[in-house]
Amino acid sequence: MGAPNTARPPATRDALLPPAGTICRVTLEEVTVCFSAEEWALLEEWQRELHREVTAATAQLAMVLGWIHPVADVVFGWGWP
């Protein structure tokens, strides 16, 4: 007889989520998408513009909440050359 199978089944997406109503803290690095110069070049213009808009909105919210200071190289240096 072989050893018992103790392998876990793959986790589903819902199993990885916290219970409803749970407050989770995340960092800006966890929610920011950065592209290499090569990846950025492969994006279409509408995708680049969408990324700029979302990044700017995220940075503005972070500044309002006092998480980051409005330093141009931090705010406008995220993710695009």
From TrEMBL:
UniProt cross-references to Pfam families, sorted A to Z: KRAB
InterPro entries: KRAB, KRAB_dom_sf
Listed CDD domains: KRAB_A-box
Domain KRAB, residue spans: 26-81
GO biological process terms on file: regulation of DNA-templated transcription
Protein name per the record: KRAB domain-containing protein
